[in-house]
Design a protein that fits this description.
Blueprint lengths: L4 E2 L4 E2 L28 H26 L5 E5 L6 H17 L3 E5 L6 H9 L6 E6 H5 L10 H4 E10 L1 E6 L7 H10 L5 E4 L5 H13 L4 E4 L3 H9 L5 E5 H9 L3 E6 L26 E8 L4 H15 L2 H9 L9 H22 L5
Parallel strand pairs: 3-4, 3-5, 8-9, 8-10
Antiparallel strand pairs: 1-2, 5-12, 6-12, 7-10, 7-11
Length: 362
């Protein structure tokens, strides 16, 4: 057999010309691109965290940029003309000027405020419908089963106003102090009547609370609103009333009603000569009436912040302060989280009083 090697000379002979040269195989191009070099672990984690953070921030930025996209609605669960209605309209006008959208005040009275609350909860979840509610609405779940709780189903946006509850009597009654009332009530248990704006109202609870503290029993006479209650006290049909300052202030200034005490811890600037219930010996009672703006639970933080800022700026205007003062309402800046805590504490206290005094809506 022939060999390509010459063993004697240990050299490689050239191939014969009839044997073709073998060409190297042509490699096909790669189907996949070569992998990118791997990032270091710290850099990869940092990139992932930044991406997740951008996802969390984006919804808030979107709401802040796009809201409000239409008119806002402030639902007031009481008739027009009351303190909540006045607060909603005055503040709503300021919000309109700042956000550039119309603010509609929608009065929905009925069922002690429940109808208005439930209408807000049924509204489209686009965060353009809000509730302007008072202390009496927050008390409603203590008296009957509801599908909502103001401290859980809603988030406070801002406190709009405060006003003291005032214990008043007719100028002709001869009663001049809370001690005078206490003396008469001890002489005639359950015969001295006091009027309020409604059964189960905050005024009713304040009347029961100071009666309990003074060791007396008064006869409660509920009215549907403060106007008729004031008229009957002035006429001498009911000797005493426990009402919000807005309902009685003008009659006090006119000399037709005599204020005996206010329900706030400190004396009210609108009635500086009237002692507090604390000063009058009725115990540690600090119970202002309030009106506040609420959003439904789950409202984006960006919406709450923008609406809150517009409300706070409105309340700071001198013209707005004057309108509130003329309606016997005070503006006191209160952080929403502080107000929320106060609502919960008050609810627990009232729940005990309602049980102890056997108070109902009937």
């Amino acid at each position: 057999m022939s060999n390509f090697y010459n063993h004697n000379h240990n050299q490689i002979k050239p191939l014969p010309s009839h044997i073709p040269l073998r060409q190297p195989a042509i490699q096909p191009p790669p189907i996949f691109s070569p992998p990118m070099p791997m990032q270091s672990a710290p850099k990869s984690r940092r990139t992932t965290l930044l991406f997740l953070l951008s996802l969390a921030i984006t919804p808030g930025l979107t709401w802040a940029q796009e809201w409000p996209s239409k008119s806002l609605t402030f639902v007031v669960p009481f008739p027009a003309g009351g303190s909540n209605d006045i607060a909603a309209r005055v503040v709503g006008d300021g919000v309109r000027q700042r956000l550039g959208q119309t603010v509609v005040v929608d009065n929905k009275p009925g069922a002690n405020g429940a109808l208005g609350v439930e209408s807000v909860l049924r509204a489209p979840k686009d965060h353009h419908t809000f509730l302007v509610a008072s202390d009496s609405v927050s008390l409603l779940p203590l008296f009957r089963a509801t599908t909502w709780d103001l401290t859980k189903s809603f988030t406070p946006v801002a406190v709009l106003s405060y006003q003291p509850i005032v214990v008043v009597t007719a100028a002709s009654s001869g009663i001049r102090t809370l001690k005078d009332l206490q003396s008469r009530a001890r002489e005639k248990p359950n015969q001295i009547a006091y009027a309020t704006s409604g059964q189960g109202s905050l005024q009713h609870l304040v009347g029961e609370l100071f009666s309990q503290q003074l060791g007396i029993d008064l006869l409660h006479v509920p009215y549907k609103g403060g106007g008729q209650a004031v008229n009957d006290v002035i006429a001498g049909q009911v000797p005493v009333a426990v009402l919000g300052a807005a309902a009685v202030l003008q009659f006090i200034k006119a000399g037709r009603l005599v204020p005996l005490a206010v329900s706030t811890r400190n004396r009210s600037p609108m009635l500086p000569d009237t002692p507090t219930l604390i000063e009058s010996g009725a115990g540690d009672i600090d119970v202002p009436q309030w009106s506040a703006l609420f959003a439904t639970e789950g409202t984006p933080a960006a919406v709450l912040a923008r609406l809150r800022r517009s409300v706070d700026e409105s309340l700071a205007e001198p013209a707005v302060k004057q309108r509130f003062t003329s309606a016997a309402m005070d503006i006191v800046a209160t952080p929403p989280e502080v107000f929320q805590k106060r609502m919960i504490q008050d609810r627990d206290r009232w729940a005990k009083l309602i049980k102890d005094r056997k108070i109902s809506l009937e």
